[in-house]
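User: Let's play a game. I give you a shape written as tokens, and you guess the letters that built it. Ready? Here's round one.
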């Protein structure tokens, strides 16, 4: 037994799955999916085979040709991070290259959020969507849930007729169900007979490019769409105004794809569609191939919403094409993507915007290094994640320190050479999963002598921020930082100084203020600029965080409203932490606990877990 990945039961000596054919029956009233999955292995295998599961009921494991049962066992205990280990035993006398499993998800599946009609925009129909990164695909179907194992898949989604489905895959057809198709006659609990009910429809998908399991994704609800480019549609619930606002916000997407192709090579995924989810979506965006998932908070009518799309688009080359082998090398995914995102932003929105984004990232990185001062392991690029829950230790470090490392290499070898290097790197490793050592070997081979100029070991294995990291310089960035420094001396920015500021300028300004200021200063700032009521959540949350830490209780009503409106972890994490961290804050702690109890059901299970871990640490 030699594990391949600290977050998976997959054994490095076992054969990997190359294709999964799924038939999924969505039972909204019980928030359950009943499924059949046909697994194809890269070569015939006999003996034990380990799969990951979490909160799944396994009904049967069968040989697909004879439908005879195959022995299996589930570990008696559920590992709090990895879940439950499903061990199959494939026959020793006749090695199998495929097997079949029937199973059901549970309402507490960590990847799935089931929304009742009142929790959606249109209030009429239920909605369900996945968030599988980092290790949640195993709560939707059994799998070798490690990015080292890339799979192709096909899927039949059996859903109520009034709903439709999207996936991180090519849409093949929407049609009437066919009796017995896709082993649906083996589904449990009578759901096989409901498969062909006249109230149901089948949405058929096919994904013929190999992806790591964390990029498996679907959403089912009352969906509508608008065309915004030759290979881009924006989808969302078919509710008043949402689609129109989204189509307007993302009108420049094709321009960004073309810039990306110029910089990094052909766009390999054919479609680049966008799905705007309900406000409970826990991330800003999720780079599901062909169908990026987005929080509605990115629709704000300025350049920064497009930057989230630029980031998810950049993943089409870095992360989705070249994937980290396991989460210990996550910086290869997010560091490269942050770098690529800023190159796209620079090309589309200009250098000043890109520098502003680097500046916000630099602030964020410095804050994270402080956050982990008692746990320096998480300030490294390459981390040891044995026994570590990736959701709990999710941070900006792989993004921003990874960005700084690549930016440092760019400065050293020059941009033209680095651009060539990137194209070659992507072409060499596309559709592969690699580790930090593979990247470093490739770097040293293609930029001879680089290790004499840059301390590659310090960057990838050292803690904190290396001395050759770089705070960006631009007139706009410098001006904002100096205005923030003046605030510390009691001077508020004048109206003419902030007249053309967008959300990002305010975000950078607020992030450069001291964590705690005089309450009177907080009130004065809000009286003049109404930041507590900003439509831009980045600005609003940065301001409310300052208000909480400065004990300005007048703003707690707005804090509560915000925590109940959105489920994006980027906002929940700082607000809940500001409320419960530190001593002598009984009122704040009571508020945090009450608001969480009332808002919990509106958060995705991953976000619920993150808030619970903040409480466990501080309460
Ligand atoms: Zn990303």
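Assistant: Ready! My guess for every position:
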């Amino acid at each position: 037994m030699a594990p391949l990945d600290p977050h998976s039961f997959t054994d490095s000596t076992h054969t990997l799955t190359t294709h999964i054919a799924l038939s999924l029956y969505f039972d909204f009233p019980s928030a359950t999916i009943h499924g059949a999955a046909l697994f194809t292995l890269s070569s015939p295998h006999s003996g034990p085979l380990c799969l990951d599961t979490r909160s799944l009921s396994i009904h049967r494991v069968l040989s697909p040709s004879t439908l005879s049962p195959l022995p299996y066992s589930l570990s008696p205990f559920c590992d709090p991070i990895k879940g439950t280990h499903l061990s199959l035993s494939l026959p020793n006398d006749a090695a199998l290259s495929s097997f079949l499993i029937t199973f059901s998800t549970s309402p507490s599946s960590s990847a799935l959020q089931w929304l009742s009609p009142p929790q959606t925009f249109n209030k009429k129909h239920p909605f369900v969507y996945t968030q599988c990164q980092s290790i949640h695909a195993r709560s939707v179907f059994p799998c070798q849930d490690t990015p080292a194992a890339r799979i192709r898949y096909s899927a039949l989604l059996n859903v109520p007729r009034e709903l439709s489905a999207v996936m991180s895959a090519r849409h093949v057809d929407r049609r009437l169900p066919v009796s017995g198709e896709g082993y649906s006659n083996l589904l449990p609990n009578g759901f096989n007979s409901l498969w062909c009910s006249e109230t149901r429809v089948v949405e058929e998908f096919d994904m013929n490019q190999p992806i790591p399991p964390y990029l498996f994704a679907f959403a089912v609800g009352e969906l509508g769409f608008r065309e915004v480019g030759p290979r881009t549609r924006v989808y969302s619930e078919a509710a008043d105004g949402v689609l129109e606002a989204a189509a307007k916000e993302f009108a420049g997407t094709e321009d960004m794809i073309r810039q990306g192709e110029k910089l990094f090579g052909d766009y390999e995924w054919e479609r680049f569609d966008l799905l705007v989810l309900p406000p409970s979506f826990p991330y800003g965006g999720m780079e599901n191939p062909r169908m990026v998932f987005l929080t509605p908070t990115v629709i704000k009518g300025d350049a920064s919403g497009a930057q989230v799309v630029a980031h998810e688009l950049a993943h089409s080359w870095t992360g989705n094409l070249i994937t980290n082998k396991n989460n210990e090398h996550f910086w290869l995914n997010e560091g490269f993507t942050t770098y690529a995102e800023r190159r796209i932003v620079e090309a589309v929105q200009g250098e000043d915007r890109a520098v502003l984004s680097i500046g916000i990232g630099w602030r964020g990185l410095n804050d994270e290094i402080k956050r982990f001062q008692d746990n320096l392991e998480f300030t490294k690029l390459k981390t040891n994640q044995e026994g570590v829950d990736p959701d709990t230790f999710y941070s900006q470090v792989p993004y921003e320190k990874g960005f700084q490392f690549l930016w440092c290499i760019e400065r050293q070898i020059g941009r033209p050479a680095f651009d060539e290097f990137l194209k070659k790197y992507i072409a060499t490793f596309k559709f592969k999963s690699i580790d930090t050592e593979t990247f470093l070997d490739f770097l040293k081979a293609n930029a001879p002598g680089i290790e004499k100029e840059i301390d590659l070991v310090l960057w990838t294995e050292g803690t904190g921020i290396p001395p050759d990291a770089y705070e960006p310089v631009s007139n706009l960035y410098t001006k904002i930082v100096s205005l923030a420094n003046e605030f510390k001396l009691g001077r508020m920015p004048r109206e003419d100084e902030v007249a053309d500021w967008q959300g990002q300028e305010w975000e950078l300004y607020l992030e450069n203020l001291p964590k705690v200021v005089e309450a009177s200063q907080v009130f004065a700032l809000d009286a003049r600029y109404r930041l507590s009521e900003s439509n831009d959540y980045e600005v609003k949350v940065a301001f409310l965080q300052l208000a909480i830490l400065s004990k300005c209780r007048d703003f707690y009503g707005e804090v509560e409203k915000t925590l109940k409106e959105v489920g994006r972890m980027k906002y929940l994490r700082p607000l809940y932490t500001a409320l419960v961290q530190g001593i002598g804050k009984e009122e704040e702690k009571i508020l945090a606990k009450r608001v969480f109890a009332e808002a919990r059901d509106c958060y995705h299970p991953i976000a619920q877990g993150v808030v619970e871990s903040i409480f466990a640490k501080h309460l």
